[in-house]
Amino acid sequence: MNRVTCLLAVMALVSAASSVKAQEEGNVHVKYRERVMKSIGANMGAIGDIIKNQLPHQANIAAHGEAIRLSSTLITSAFRVKVTANTDALPVIWEKWEDFVAAAADLEVASKALAEIAASDDMTTIGPAVRAVGQSCGSCHRAFRRQDD
Amino acid sequence: MYLLVSDGSAESLSSERGEYIFRASGGCSCHNDTEAGGAFMAGGRPVSTPFGAVYATNITPDYETGIGGWSDADFLLAMTQGVGPEGQHYLPAFPYTSFTRMAESDLLDLKAYLFSLPAVRSVAPPQGIPAPFRWRFSLLAWKALHFRSGPFQPEPDSSQAWNRGAYLVTAVAHCGECHTPRGRLGGLRSDRTHGGTSADSVPNITPDTENGIGAWSTPDLVWYMQHGLGPDGDSAQGVMQELIDSGYRYLTDEDLKAIDHYLRSLPAIR
């Protein structure tokens, strides 16, 4: 192996290693933001289970709503680092960052309202409040998450 | 969206019933060009097919650009035979293939509802389907191969709930138009009815426990159709979200349970 070939081989290895490292770094960011988003889904699923199965945990809905609100305040921080590989997050998040921030703020407002309604005695309006949170999830996903279809 | 104040007349009652049918169809969402902010039911929305883009038509009662000049017979012919008032054959992106199973009374109620909407003047772009697929001859051949017309026939040995569910799923809500994969010529594959499509990731809604809705409970499915939220708390995706928002969520618990009941009776497709 002459020196040039050797040098090229070393360069290729270094570049491969650094791209693996970049990929891993990307993956930890993706992993974290997925955890934040999944915590929202888990609480949303819990609220759904309580209502649709009439579980004796109605008093917990307010706390689940509050948990969604808290997680919603972490979204912009979780997505600040732009990583577009191996993720359903679309690049448009960083292209239209202000819209993305507004969508996260919208979830905060909707989940706050849900938590407040759940904490009050008036459970008749809980359905629309849950739907409002769901619509907030859905419209943000529609704009910023890869669609399956 | 459009609250109808009933004056108790036969026409107004028909339009009220028609609004429910409209909801059960998913709010005829393809006729809303949501992305471009188009007027309600005024069409123009591109619906992608493997053969090219099909633009939804204007179904507001505008006389010239919508369906305002249509008679009851025109409407029934379009919905059940896929044939327009001038004898033109529609592309099967318009799911007359399912609507053909609808009861005539439901179709006329639906027409009464559509005719109660504000008329909007709007012409859809020309269809993006290339020849030979849009030729009259091709559409006739396609119909001969893939289209069976005629209203839904209830199964006398099955329960009322099952029959109601079957009617809603296969006729009004036209679930199979997206959830059943299509063959090379765009016909629905009867061996994979409601089995989902891998090409554009439409989910399997048969009772298979792994790939279908088998692991969902009845309350899970009803909740999903009412709120657009799956058992894992995630939102419904894409077109389904729209169909729920503007249509399915208005269905009664009884109808949603009937849909669930029927879907669970289907053979599980893996």
Based on the model shown, name its key terms.
heterodimer; A: 149 residues; mainly alpha; 6 helices; 76% helix; B: 270 residues; 10 helices; 2 strands; 3% strand; globular
Describe the structure.
The complex is a heterodimer of chains A (149) and B (270). Chain A is mainly α and 149 residues long. Helix content of chain A is 76%, strand content 0%. Chain A contains 6 helices and no strands. Chain A has helices spanning 3-52, 61-72, 75-79, 92-95, 97-119, 126-144. In chain A, helix 1 packs antiparallel against helix 2, helix 2 (61-72) packs antiparallel against helix 5 (97-119) and helix 5 (97-119) runs antiparallel to helix 6. Chain A is elongated and about 80 Å long. The model of chain A has no long low-confidence stretch (mean pLDDT 90). Chain B contains 10 helices and 2 strands; from the N terminus they run αββααααααααα. In chain B, helix 2 packs across helix 4, helix 6 (160-172) crosses helix 10 (253-265) and helix 8 packs across helix 10 (253-265). Chain B is 37% helix and 3% strand. The radius of gyration of chain B is 18 Å and the shape is globular. Chain B has 270 residues and is mostly helical. The model of chain B has no long low-confidence stretch (mean pLDDT 93). Chain B has a two-stranded antiparallel ribbon with strand order 1-2. Chain A binds chain B through residues 40-49, 51-53, 127, 130-131, 134-135, 137-138, 141-142, 147-149, and chain B through 200-202, 217, 219-220, 222-223, 226-239, 241, 245, 249.
Radius of gyration of chain A from CA coordinates:
21 Å
Number of helices of chain B: 10
> Helices and strands of chain A, in N-to-C order?
HHHHHH
Assembly state of the chains shown: heterodimer
- Count of helical segments of chain A? 6
Q: Approximately how much helix is present in the residues of chain B?
A: 25-40%
